[in-house]
Amino acid sequence: MKNHRVLLMGLFCVAVMSVVMLSGARYWHDLVTGRVDPAVQDQSLSAQPADDGIAAPVSAPSSTMTGTRLFDAPVSELTGQFTRTWRISGPQMCAAFRDAGIEATEWRAASMRSVTYECYFQRIYERDEIRPLRSTFLRVRGNAWGEVLEISGRIVGPTTDDQGSLDPSLMRIFEVLVSQVKWGDFQDTLGPIRKLLDVRCERFGASFEFTRELSQDNSYNFTLVLSQGSSQQIRTRAYFSQDRWMANPDYRRTRPVLPMLSSR
Question: Do residues 92 and 134 share a domain?
Answer without folding.
Answer: yes
